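Sequence, please.
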């Protein structure tokens, strides 16, 4: 009997000696699908001279815009850069104290970040420098290493070596294009980590805010709260400075926001005034501290705790003193440090990219972040990453390009060389107020937490679990808990992915002329456009209970995989499918087993004296075809492929002596198609895909091949598509006017229309969608007629 390929060629009029257009609608039916080859895939990975050049050029994104730089961009960058500079100077010194370093290291780190990042950046908004959370992590590392190795390593050497190692690892990940790994860190984990960290940092600053000494602020946050409450009677004059400074910061911001709403025409002005609040408040309290401590030259003898001497210029140059001893000492903290660096930087850059309508390259951002942390220690820098507060201010200030960081670096340089004498009188309580004011903005607001609950209650639980672990143990444990829980949920969802048994419904829609509104649209107009849709028969999609979801056809089962088909969930999917098939169909041979002893143990049948099958079972149809919707399946591993083979074997035994057709819809990945073909599916002859089937049985299968209107090779059409998917056999054999009306011999311009097969004619059991697959099954059943033993 002729194969589908031969019938296709005959229908198209394609002879061995060339093309012959016997049918006006079609030509060239010779498209044969080829399989992807491992050799070609490996050759595609071999770099070419042009590819190498593009790769190295991609490492310096500034080359794409620097030659277009203009005065307007310069003005925006200067304003934004200077604005951030006024913020980063006090913040940098305050965060260095969190890292158990002297204040100047915060300025060194900030300068390096702003100087190096711009050349490698794909985000114009983000600012790399000192941040509260990373500084706290560094401080924890310093304390732990110095306790384990007393008098061996200085705090600066530990922090610089940690930055060097983290930078090298992150740079390597960026250079090999491994930026996708950041996608494994979900939003809920980031929000939980930031909230728990912000709370822990804030309560850790309260003792310094009140001038209380003797409280171990590196304990768990709940212990810090308890110890602080016990020590409240020991509060000093610093409390007056710290509390008023904290109040002044919040009142300043509230007043600027209030005036911005009252004077919308001056909104930009009030924004810039608001961004200067940290610098203005610090300057004000430097003056107050100077009045209180006038004449003091030794900061230890001041009436309130002050910052003390800050060295001028760069006092640290050259590589950090790295050796095996210090490497082994900091090794346990490297994973946590890298995760924190990635979480803050990538989350912030992607967020502001979406806000400002540009796309970042995660791998390139890793290059920028790694390069900054790798070379920062040579000038005294410690681990640095993106800052949320400074990035938000920089974005609102109207930054135009990443070059704005250079102007911020200029402000930092001026502070290092010209203002260090003024820094002597900065009150420590004022710096604590500044830190608390900055980190409290990182706490997730109630509306966002409520959104977690409405979106995914399980992730809402993970959020709070991470927060509580951070508060009652430490920040590092909070990171690991949220990431591990999120990964566990992901694996659970994959393993328990819910497949759907689909039924068909008829969808009626108004024609395009009447689609603007339902008013005035007649029932006749609504009936002009109809199509089939496929919904979950169990109505797990919350579809209207009154919607009439019907079986696609007696004995035809449509199954849609959810979240892929792989070795983790293939058994669950196919077990569910087999159970359902056996619950809605019957064996083809109801008297297959002559005696009770012949029946298998797992299908013992009725007791003696009872009918072998009830009337309800006998009324069921026999199994005829299975349609598998692969639209959610992008790859097929060996275990999943074997599961499909086992399914086919089981169902053929169940339907014996008939052979069950297996059709696949929406198999978009070429390697998944190759895996199916290698497993005996999708081939031109059912004798190939059904092991053991006789030639007579194989010959009754004549699957239909979907075609679409041809266009220019390799091109895609934007906008509404004019192509129509039709069926070769339908066009050739049917006389139904509704079908013929879809296949017109000429297009709108009067030119002959040409149709080509969508998929290879040697893969007739692969279809574009479920509707096409079902149509192929139904027409195949029609052709079987009375010759098919399972047909009723």
């Amino acid at each position: 009997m002729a194969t589908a390929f031969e019938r296709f060629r005959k229908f198209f009029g394609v002879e061995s000696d060339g093309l012959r257009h016997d049918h006006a609608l079609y030509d060239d039916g010779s498209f044969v699908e080829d399989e992807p080859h491992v050799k070609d895939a490996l050759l595609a990975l071999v770099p070419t001279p042009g590819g190498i050049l593009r790769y190295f050029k991609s490492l310096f994104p500034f080359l794409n815009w620097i030659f277009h730089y203009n005065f307007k961009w310069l003005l925006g960058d200067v304003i934004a850069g200077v604005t951030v500079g006024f913020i980063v100077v006090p913040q940098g010194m305050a965060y260095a104290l969190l890292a158990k370093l002297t204040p100047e290291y915060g300025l060194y780190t900030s300068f390096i970040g702003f100087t190096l990042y711009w050349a490698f950046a794909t985000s114009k908004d983000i600012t790399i420098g000192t941040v509260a959370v990373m500084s706290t992590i560094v401080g924890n590392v310093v304390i732990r290493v110095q306790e384990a190795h007393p008098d061996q390593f200085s705090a600066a050497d530990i922090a610089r070596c940690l930055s060097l190692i983290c930078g090298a690892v992150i740079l390597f990940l960026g250079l090999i294009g491994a930026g996708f790994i950041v996608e494994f860190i979900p939003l809920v984990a980031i929000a939980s980590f930031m909230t728990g960290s912000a709370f822990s940092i804030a309560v850790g600053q309260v003792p310094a805010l009140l001038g209380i000494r003797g409280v171990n602020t590196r304990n768990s946050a709940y212990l810090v709260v308890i110890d602080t409450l016990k020590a409240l009677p020991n509060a000093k004059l610093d409390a007056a400075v710290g509390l008023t400074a904290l109040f002044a910061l919040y009142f300043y911001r509230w007043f600027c926001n209030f005036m911005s709403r009252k004077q919308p025409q001056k909104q930009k002005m009030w924004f810039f005034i608001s961004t200067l609040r940290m610098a203005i408040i610090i300057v004000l309290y430097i003056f107050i501290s100077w009045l209180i401590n006038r004449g003091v030259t030794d900061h230890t003898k001041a009436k309130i705790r002050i910052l003390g001497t800050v060295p001028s210029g760069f006092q640290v140059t050259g590589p950090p003193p790295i050796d095996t001893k210090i490497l082994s000492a900091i090794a346990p903290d490297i994973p946590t440090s890298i995760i924190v660096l990635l979480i803050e930087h990538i989350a912030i850059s992607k967020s502001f990219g979406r806000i400002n309508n540009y796309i970042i390259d995660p791998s390139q951002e890793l290059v920028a972040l790694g390069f900054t942390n790798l070379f920062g220690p040579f000038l005294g820098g410690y681990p640095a990453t993106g800052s949320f507060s400074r990035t938000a201010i920089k974005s609102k200030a109207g930054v135009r390009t990443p070059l704005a960081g250079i102007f911020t670096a200029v402000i930092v340089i001026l502070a290092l060389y010209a203002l260090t004498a003024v820094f002597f009188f900065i009150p420590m309580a004022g710096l604590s107020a500044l830190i608390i004011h900055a980190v409290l903005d990182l706490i997730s607001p109630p509306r966002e937490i409520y959104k977690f609950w409405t979106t995914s209650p399980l992730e809402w639980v993970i959020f709070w679990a991470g927060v509580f672990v951070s508060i009652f143990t430490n920040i590092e444990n909070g990171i690991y808990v949220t990431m591990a829980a999120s990964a566990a949920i992901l694996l659970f969802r994959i393993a328990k992915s819910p497949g759907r048994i689909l039924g068909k419904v008829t969808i009626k829609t108004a024609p395009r002329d009447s689609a603007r509104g339902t008013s005035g649209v007649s029932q006749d107009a609504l009936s002009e456009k109809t199509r089939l849709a496929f919904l979950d028969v169990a109505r797990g999609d919350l579809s209207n209970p009154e919607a009439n979801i019907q079986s696609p056809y007696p004995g035809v089962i449509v199954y849609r995989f959810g979240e892929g088909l792989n070795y983790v969930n293939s058994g669950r999917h196919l077990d569910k499918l087999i159970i359902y098939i056996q619950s809605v169909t019957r064996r083809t041979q109801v008297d297959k087993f002559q005696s009770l002893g012949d029946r298998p143990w797992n299908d013992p049948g009725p007791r003696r004296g009872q009918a072998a099958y009830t009337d309800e079972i006998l009324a069921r149809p026999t199994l005829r075809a299975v349609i598998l919707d692969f639209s959610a399946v992008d790859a097929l591993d060996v275990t999943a492929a074997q599961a499909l083979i086992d399914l086919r074997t089981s169902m053929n035994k169940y339907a014996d002596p008939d052979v069950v057709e297996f059709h696949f819809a929406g198999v978009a990945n070429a390697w998944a198609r190759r895996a199916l073909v290698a497993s005996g599916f999708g081939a031109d002859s059912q004798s190939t895909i059904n092991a053991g089937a006789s030639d007579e049985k194989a010959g009754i299968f004549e699957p239909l091949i979907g075609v679409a209107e041809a266009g220019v090779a390799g091109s895609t059409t934007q906008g509404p598509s004019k192509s129509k998917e039709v069926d070769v056999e339908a066009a050739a054999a049917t006389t139904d006017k509704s079908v013929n009306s879809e296949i017109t011999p000429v297009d709108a311009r009067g030119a002959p229309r040409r149709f080509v097969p969508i998929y290879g004619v040697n893969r007739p059991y692969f279809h574009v969608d479920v509707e096409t697959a079902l149509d192929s099954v139904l027409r195949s059943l029609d052709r079987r007629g009375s010759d098919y033993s399972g047909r009723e």
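The chain has 31 helices and 13 strands.
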